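Researcher: Quick one. two chains, 1529 residues in total.
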Amino acid sequence: MLAVGLTGCTDSFLEITPETSLSSVTFFKTEADFTQAVNACYVPLRTIYNDRSYLLSEMHSDNTYYYRNTAFGATEQQEDLADFSIPVSNNLTTNTHVLNQYRQDYLIIARANQILALIDKADFDAATKANLKGQAQFMRAFAYFEIYRYFNKGPLQLTPVTTREAAAAKLGTADDISKIIIGDLTGAIAGLKPKATQEPGRATSGAAKTLLANLYLIQKNWAGAEKLCREVIAEGSYSLMPDYNNAFTTSTGNKNNAESVFEVQYQEGANGFQGSFMYNFLPRPMTSAELFTLSGTSNPQPQTGEGNNAPMPELINSYEAGDLRKDASIGYITCSTTLWQGKTYPIIKKFMRTHSLNGNHGMNWPIFRYSEVLLFLAEALNEQGKTVEAATYMNMVRKRAGLPNTTATSQVEFRTALMNERRWELAFENKRWHDLVRTDTYKERITAKGNAIKADPFAHYYERGYTLRSNSFSVIEKYYPLPADEAALNPNIK
Amino acid sequence: MKNKFYDLRMGNRTGGLLLALIFFLSSVAMAQAQNLRGKVSGSDGEPLIGAAVTIVGTTRGASTDGSGNYAIDVKNNETLRFSSVGFISKDVVYSGQKTLNISLAADNKTLNEIIVVGYGSQVKKEITGAVQTISYKELKDLPVTQIGQKLQGQLAGVQINQTTGQPGKGMNIRIRGQLSVSAGSDPLYVVDGFPITGSIGAMNPDEIEDISVLKDASSTSLYGSRAANGVVLITTKKGKGAGMNVSFSAFTGVQNVPMKGRLDMMDAEEFAQFKKESFEDAKQPVPAEFQNPAQYKGKNNDWYDALLNKDAPISSYTLSITSNKERARTSLVAGVLQQKGVVRNTDYQRYSLRLNSTYDISDKVTIGFNVAPQMVYDNTPRTDGDRGTGILFNALHTWPIMPIYEADGKTLTKFNRFPASTGNIFAYANWVRSADELINETTTTNLLSNAFVEFEPIKGLKFKSSMNGEILRTKFFFFNPSNATSAINTPIPTTAVSIRENFENLSWLNENTVTYNKTINEDHKVELLGGYTNQYFRQESTRIQADTYADDRLPTIQGAINIARGGTNSGVQEWSLTSYLARLNYNYKGKYLFNAAIRSDGSSRFGANNRWGTFPSVGAGWVVSDEAFMSELPVVSFMKLRGSWGIIGNNNLGNYTSYALINNTVNGVFGNTVATGAAVSSLANPNLGWETTQQLDLGLDLNLFNNRINFAYDYYTKNTTNLLYAVQIAQESGFGNFNDNIGEIKFWGHEFSLNTTNTTGKVKWTTNANISFNRNVVVALAPGIDRVYGSFHITKVGQPFGQFYGVIADGVYKNAADLANSPKVPGRSTVGSIKLKDFNGNGVIDYGGNADDRTIMGNPFPDFVYGITNNVTYQNWDFNIIGSGSYGNQLLVRHIYSTANLDGVFNMVDGAKYRFRSEANPGMGMYGTTVGGGNVTGIERDWMNSRFVADASYFTIRNITLGYTFAKPTKVYKSVRVYASCQQAYVFTNYWGGPNPETSAQGNGQGDGGNLSPGVDLSNYPVPRTFTVGANFNF
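Model:
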C-alpha cells in the first residue's frame, strides 16, 4: 500500500472495499448465497412472535388481558391493545406495536424480494433452487398474509428497493394483496419439499397449502380450502400427538414434531436465537423464588413491570368438563409481592417450560399445527353443508382432548361448536382475534369483554379500588389503522 | 482487587523524580559566556527575559537571562541582532566594546509576526483570511491538562464546551457553529503539517509552540474535503533562540466538586415523607417503612456525594530542552501527568515525550525529524450515561433510605431492595462498590512522527517532501466481577463479564510541495505553492467478550465459561486520500493583498461515481492604514479590510457508507441446526460524496492609539449543501434510511475581538475580550421531508437545527371544573395531573401522530458566546484571570424523567415536595399529583415537555493565577516563577439541572441521537474546581 501511495497509482489507491463485510454486488450468485439469504427471511419471525403477535392477536381478543401492576408505568402501548383504545387519528395510529409488526413483515418481504428478483438467473441445481425459491415465496406470502389480516391493505413491494425514490410504494387493496399471496403460494406449493424430505423447521409444501387454506377460509372459498386441507392430510406426514401437552415443544426438544406444520424456531443459549415470551406472560412483580418454580433456571431474576396475556376468567370457565386441554393450557402461580389482592393468577402453562438461563428459552412457537388443519377442513365442509363429514374431523381433535364426539348436528350449531373448539384447541396461539374478525363476531365479543371487565375489575387482575381507564373499549374496529410513522414517509398512505 | 496485568501505574512520584534527575544532569552541560556582555530591556527600562541575541549570517546566538543580561562571543564587524517577541528587533554592528546595553521598542501586536497557515507561514499583516493564533506564551500559565481547556474563552467564533469532567476527555470544539445532520463536526487537527486521525485530547499541551485556528474558506481550502469544520494547526516546539535552554515546570493541586450546582435531591427523611404522603393521597395504607419519616433524620444516604473523592490530587511535570547549535536545532519535551478524578477510582496518567530535530546538512538542504511517543492510562468508572448504565445518574435517583454501608459503617452494602409494597420496583446495586470494583481501563500508546527534507536549489525556490506516520494502539479492558454491578435490578452475585478490545491504527501521509517566493521590483511580492499528497488510514480491531467466571481474581479469557458470540468480533476500517493543491499569494507593497488556493481531493470514502472533489478559494485585503490619506488620522495605527470566499468540504461520512453491504450474521436456526443467514443491510449510493460548504468572510482589523487597542471583526456566511444525511425512507423497503447528499443549512455570524493594553509602566494591564454570535437555519431537507427528529429534538425546515421538541406544560388541572373545561389526554388526565397546551386546538392533547401538539420548546444553541482574559503584571508579580460564557442556550434536563418521576420509584428532586396534593394544597404548579399511577404520572414523565427545559446560560471563571518570578539568576537557575492558581473557580448560572451547564450527553446511549440531539443532561461526570501551586524553572 505504501509503495502504491508513493507512486501515485491513484485509481487502485482510492478503491477500498470493506474487508469485513460482503457487498451486494458480489453476493446473490451461488447456491450458498441464496441459502443464506433464504435463512435470513425467517429471522424476523422470531421477533414478531416473541414480542408482538400475542399483543395484536391474543390480548387484542376476548381470550386474554394484562396483569395490571399499578406501581408500574409506561405500559399504555400494550394496554391500549387489550383495552381497544389505541390512538387513532386520520385513520392512522401511533401504537408502537402496530408499527413494529408492520415493519417486521415488510422486512421479510424485502428480503424475499431480493431473492425472487435474482434467483432465476443464478446457475445451480434446479431442485435446490426450486426449494429455496419456494421458501422465499412462502415467506413473502406469509408476511403479506399478516398485512392482509391486520390492515386489509398495504403498500405493494414486489421488487428490491435500490433507490430512495422507490422506497415508498403504491398502496394496494386487500384484493391486490390476496393476488400476491395466492400467486406466491401456488409457486411455493410446487417448489417446496414435503415435510418428509424437507429439513425440519423450514417451510414445506404442506405449510404452504395450510397457509393458502387459511386465506381461502377468510375469503369463504370453502371448496378451495377443502381441497388443500385434504391434500395435506393425504400427504400422510402429519398426525396428532397423542398427548395435547406434547403438541408443544420443550426448551430443547420435541421440535417440529409430527403435529407441527410450521413453527417459529428458537434455540436457548448464548447464540442469540432464544425466545423470552414466557417472561412476557408472567404476572409481576414476581420474586426469583416464584419464578424458579416455572423457569427452573439456575439464575432466576426477580421480575418487575407489568405482565401480559393473562387468561380471561371467561375463557377459563368456557372449557367443557373433562377437557384435558384446560389443565395443559392454563396453570396457576401465586405471587406474594404483587399489589393485586387476589395473589393467585392463571398463567399460560402451555408456553411455560423449564430452561437453563434466565430470560432465555428455546421453545418453538406453533404457527400451524395439524389439529388446525383438521379444524380448517371441518369448517370448510360444514360451510358447504357437509356437516356430518365435518364432525368426523372435529371429533379427531376432541378425542385427543379427552372429549366425546360433538353433539352439534345442524350447520348453525356446528359453526358455533367449531369456533369454541378452535378457541380451546388453539388458545393463546394468536388465532382468536382473526377468528372473531373473519366470522364478524368481533364487535359483540369485544363489547362483552369490556363489559365483563368494567363490571368486575378485580376479577380481571385490577387492585381493589382501581378501575379501567376512561377510554377503554372505545375503538373496536375490524382492522388496525396503518402506522402513522410510515404514513409520514409514504405519501401514498393517506 | 486490581488486575496486575493491566496496572501500569508507577509509584505516584516516580515519574517526577526521574525527570528531576534528568534536569539536574542536564544543567551541568551549560555553555559558558565570554567577551561581550550586556543587558536588553524594553523602552520602559524593564529587562527583557529570554530575548534572542544572534549573530547575523551564523548560527551562533544567546539569549537573555532572568535579569535581561546576555553574554556572547562576537568578532568585529559582525552584525548582532537583538530580538524579542513583542518588540521590534534591532541590528548593531559590533565594534569591539565590552558591554552593550540595548533598548528595544515595543511592537505591541507585532504585525510582522509570522503566523503558521496551511502549508506554510505568512506575515500577519498580509493575511486575508480569518486566522486566529495563540502562542505558547499565552497558554503556558494555565495549569490544565488538555489543549481544549487552554483555549476555552480565548478565540472568537470558537465554542468550546467541557461536556464531561472525565480526565482527558469531553472537550467539544465547534468552529463557527459548525454542525451537520450525520457527518462529524470536529475541526481537522493538523500537527506539524500532519492531519492526525486520533484525538487531540491526550496531547501534552506543553509540547505546543503555537496554535493557529483557521476559520474562513481562504485559509482552510487547502485542506479541501476536510476543511468545512475549520482547521486547527498545531506547531510543536522547535529548537530556536540561541544555545541551550532548559526549563522545568511542575504543578500539583487538588480537585473538588463544589456543593453549588449539584442537583437538589430529597434527603432520607424528606423522601420518606414524600412516600408517606403519596400512599395517603392514594388512600392506601402506608407501608411501615414510611410511617415515621422522622426515623430517618440524620440517616441520609447521599449516594451522589458518596461517589465523589475529596481533594483528588493532580500533578504534572514537564522538562523542556531546546538547543540551537551550528547546524542542528533540537527540542525535547518530556512530560508526566498524574491525575485522580473527583469520582472514586478515576485514574489518569500520561507519559509523553517529543523530540524535534532539524539539521542543515548543507546550505541548500535541511532535514528534520519529529518523534513523539506517548502513553496514556485511564481508568474511569462508568459514570456517564442514562439510567441503568451511568452510575452518577443511578446514584442521583437511588432512594436515600437505602444504606450505603452495612451496620458497621464501613463495609459497603451489596444490593438494596425494599419490599414491593413500598413501590421499590428498581433494586439497586451499591454504586460506590460499582465505582471501586469494576475495571474500565484504557491504555493508549501513540507514536506520532514526521520526517522531511527541504531543498532550496536557488533562493526562493523550495522543494519539500515529508513522510508522516501515526501509530495508535488502544487497549481496552473491562471487567465486571460477580460481587459488583453497575446495572439496576441485578442482584449480587451476578454474572461476571470481561471485555477486551484492541484497536490498532496506522495512518501515513506523504506530502510533496514546491514553493517559490519572489519579490519583483521591490513592490510585487509573489508566493506560489504546488503540492501532491497521499494519505492512508487503517484500523484493525478485535473484541472479545467472555462471561461467567469461576473466580473473579482471574478474569482471563480462558477463565470464563462462555465466550459471548454477540460481543466478540473483529473489524477493519480503511480510507485513502489523494490530493493536488496549489496556492498563489500576491501583494503590492504589502498594501493590496490577494490570494487564491485550490485543492482537489480524491477519496475512497466517496462513491464510485463521485470520487473527486475540487475546493477553490480566493481572498483579498486592503491595508487602508498604509494609504497616504490615513496619515491624517494618526489615531489609527493599523487598519485592514479583508474578504474571502471559497468552497470547502466535510468528508466525515464513514468509510463504507456508499456501499450496499451484506450482513452475514442474520442467522437462523432450523430444528437444532444453526444456519448462517445473510441479508442486504444498507442501500448503495455510488453518487455519495462530501458535504459542500460555500463560505464568505468579511473582516476588519483596526488598531488604535499606537496599537494599544486592537480590534477585529468578522462577518461570515456559510451555505452547506449536499448534507450527508441518512434520509429516512419508508421501511416497507426493508431499510430505514438511504445515505444521500441532500438538503441545505445556512449559517451566519459575527465575531468581535478586542485586545487592549490598559496600562503600561510599572503596572501592565492587558485585556483580551471576544464575543461571537452564531446562527443557523435549515433551508431544506429531503424532498417530501420537512423535519427530522432527534431523541427529544426536531430539525425542521425554516428553523434552527436541533431544537428541543415537546409539549408545553401549563401547570396542573386545579380542580374538576378546570379539568372539564381544558383540553386533556383522553383516559389519562385527572385533577392535579399535568396540564399541557393544546397546540392545534382540537381539544385533545396528542403526543406524536397526525394531531401532534408538540412544538419547539427550547434551543440548545446560545445567542452568543464570549470570553475575557485579563493579565496584570507589577514588578515580579503576575496575575491572570480568564472567564468565558454562553448566553441564551438551554439544556434538556433529561434525568428528571427519573429524578422527578412522581411514582416514587426513584429518589426525587427537592422541588417535588411542592407538588399538587389536593385542591386545597395545589403546590407550586410545577409537579402534578402522584395519584393514579403511571397512567396519569406517565404523561409528565414520558412525554417530553417544557418542564424538562432549563436555561443554561453561564459565565465561568476558568482560571485565576497569581505568580511571582524570582528573576535574579543563581547558580542553579536563571529564573523561577512560582504561582498559585484555581481552575473552574466559579460558575455563574441559573441552570438547575446539575453542576455543569456545558454538558451534553452525546455518545452516551439514550439522549444520544447523535448530531440531531444536542444539549441533553444525563448527569455526566462533574467538572471539578481545582486549586494548584506550581513552579517554572529556567536553567
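Residues 1-8 of chain A have pLDDT under 50 and may be disordered.
Researcher: Thanks, that's what I needed.
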